[in-house]
Write a structure and sequence with these properties.
By secondary structure, the protein is an alpha+beta fold. It is 36% helix and 36% strand. The protein has helices at 3-17, 32-40, and strands spanning 22-28, 44-52, 58-65. It has a three-stranded antiparallel β-sheet, covered by helices on one side. A hairpin with a 5-residue loop joins strand 2 and strand 3 (58-65).
Amino acid sequence: RGVGDLLLDAVERWAARGGAELLRLGVFEGNEHALALYRRRGFLPTGRIRRELPDGRRDMELVKRLR
């Protein structure tokens, strides 16, 4: 477990205490390390592209249900 896991632990606890039911984030296609972390932590792709940069990189949306 690395820093990413520790940060996600803290965010998930904070969001759950605040009554959140869903976490939503964006990650650029091709960022395989981040995608692996988020998938391992239960985030799933929605198929929605949040934005596309002028250089062609696309920001994919992932979500995780907390409840």
